UniProtKB/TrEMBL annotation:
UniProt keywords, alphabetically: Heme, Iron, Metal-binding, Monooxygenase, Oxidoreductase
Highest taxon, organism lineage: Bacteria
Organism, scientific name: Novosphingobium ginsenosidimutans
TM annotation in the entry: none
CDD domains referenced in this protein's UniProt entry, alphabetically: CYP142-like
Protein name: Cytochrome P450
Family of this protein: Belongs to the cytochrome P450 family.
GO molecular function per UniProt: heme binding; iron ion binding; monooxygenase activity; oxidoreductase activity, acting on paired donors, with incorporation or reduction of molecular oxygen
Length: 412
């Protein structure tokens, strides 16, 4: 008599499983992870074996030691999906400065960083406010609509188009490319690998044309900044594509999902929304708290370059080490009652959503500007987003986001 094949046992702390995020049940799993096995070796997952790190202090320790814990793309890069063998097989090498170690990382980051400096971001404020106000004034009051499409995507894609000097009427391509570039699930089968490659090539060709145009007529946009720098003007095609993915995903998915968290999260905690509506001076801190609570990129990955020890665990050279920001941002030892939004939380700014150390998000100020502006413009109009039903969520462990969120606006 034949016996049925046993289903492989699922590691309860394999937090890479997409259904955890699609079904929004990550909080309890990570709470157990932090309490029972804060550093845990997952022997098998959809992405292969990895060390899963779920608490705040070890993550900061890892981030502070780039010579031991590498971000380099040729070792696996910055996402759990990084796979040097697959990259070689499918010719999908995508160097980007966040997936480089010093000194190459340092030189390329220095090229881009001035575009996101305090004075540059301050100069964006008026246009950002005007564009945000225009979008909000186009929305219906008292009628359902998709907040993700009409607000979050529209505002962030508009900002990206301005930063790149990308043709305004074609800006919807930036959203599509961002979705493909940041989707770690696509590497799990050959058909979706090929589809992603095709989309990234499409993006590369569009920006290559823009590059040629800016060589003849440079401006102040990011493409012009890159082509005028010694560190980036001679980039190979795959490096150009890699940096575009970084800047587009970093500038699009993260901010847009924090904007959606504003609508969803404050609806979930109406007492916190009432505090904010009563005192708009709380907006800057509320933005930090929403970024913490949402954690729009759930994790970053590093690869050990030598044998080392992490809180008593023996990490071998070549091991993937995945740092779960989404869990660290709820670490009870740092954020009391961290699963709840508290817009006046004193240490909200300690969140790790922008990373830590040499790889801290270079565009953090632009993200904060867009979010603060959205909350300010909503407050000026005394608008409130009332959520109708649960959102559809991104089914993946990297981008922690919303595919759709139906709301209805009212006045307060």
């Amino acid at each position: 008599m034949a016996t049925a094949a046993l289903e492989p046992e699922v590691d309860p702390f394999d937090v890479s499983r997409p259904e955890i995020y699609a079904e929004d049940r990550f909080e309890e799993i990570f709470r157990r992870h932090r309490a029972e096995a804060p550093i845990h070796y997952v022997k098998d997952s959809g992405f292969g074996p990895y060390w899963s790190v779920s608490t705040y202090k070890p993550i900061v320790y890892i981030e502070a030691l780039p010579k031991i814990f590498s971000s380099s793309w040729d070792r696996g890069g910055i996402a759990i999906s990084g796979n040097p063998k697959l990259a070689e097989e499918y010719n999908m090498r995508e160097p980007m400065f966040i997936a480089m170690d010093p000194p190459q990382h340092t030189a390329q980051r220095r090229t881009v960083a001035p575009s996101f400096g305090p004075s540059e971001v301050a100069a964006m404020k008026a246009e950002c406010a005007a564009r945000t106000g225009e979008v909000l004034d186009s929305l219906p009051i008292g009628q359902p609509f998709d907040w993700v499409q009409r607000v979050s995507i529209e505002l962030t894609t508009g900002m990206l188009a301005k930063l790149f000097g990308y043709p305004w009427e074609q800006r919807h391509h930036l959203t599509e490319w961002s979705d493909f570039g940041g989707d770690v699930e696509l590497i799990k089968n050959p058909a979706t690998i090929e589809l992603r490659l095709a989309k990234m090539q499409e993006m590369g060709m569009a920006f290559a044309a823009l590059w040629q145009e800016r060589m003849a007529n440079p401006g102040k946009d990011l493409i012009s900044v890159m082509l005028q720098s010694d560190a980036m003007k001679e980039m190979a095609p795959e490096e150009f594509i890699g940096n575009l993915i970084l800047l587009i995903v970093g500038g699009n998915d993260t901010t847009r999902n924090s904007m959606s968290a504003y609508a969803y999260g404050l609806n979930k905690y109406p007492e916190e929304r009432a505090k904010l509506e009563a005192d708009p001076a709380l907006i800057p801190n509320a933005v930090q708290e929403l970024i913490r609570w949402q954690t729009p990129l759930s994790h970053m990955r590093r690869t050990a370059v030598e044998d080392t020890e992490l809180d008593g665990h023996q990490i071998k050279a070549g091991d993937a080490v995945v740092m779960w920001y989404i869990s660290a941002n709820r670490d009870e030892s740092v954020f009391k009652d961290g699963e709840h939004i508290r817009i006046d939380r004193e240490n909200a700014r300690r969140h790790l959503s922008f990373g830590y150390g040499i790889h801290r998000c270079v565009g953090a100020r632009v993200a904060e500007l867009q979010l603060v502006t959205l909350l300010e413009e909503m407050a000026k109009r005394r608008l409130r987003a009332n959520v109708i039903g649960e959102p559809t969520r991104v089914p993946a462990c990297f981008v922690h986001g919303y595919k759709s969120l139906t709301v209805e606006l009212s006045r307060y």
